[in-house]
Amino acid sequence: MHPIQEKLLKVIDGKNVGDLTLRQIGELIEEKLPQKIKHHLSQLERKGFILIDRKNKNISRISNKAKVGDIFISIPIIGAANCGPATIYADQNIEGYLKISKRLVSNKKSVFALRAEGNSLNKANIDGKNVESGDFVIVDSENTSPHDGDYIVSVMDGMANIKKYLLDKKNSRIALLSESTQEHSPIFIHENDDFKISGKIVDVVKNIKQ
Question: Please, which residues have CB within 8 angstroms of residue 105's CB and are 6 or more apart in sequence?
Answer without folding.
Answer: 73, 75, 111, 138, 140, 202, 203
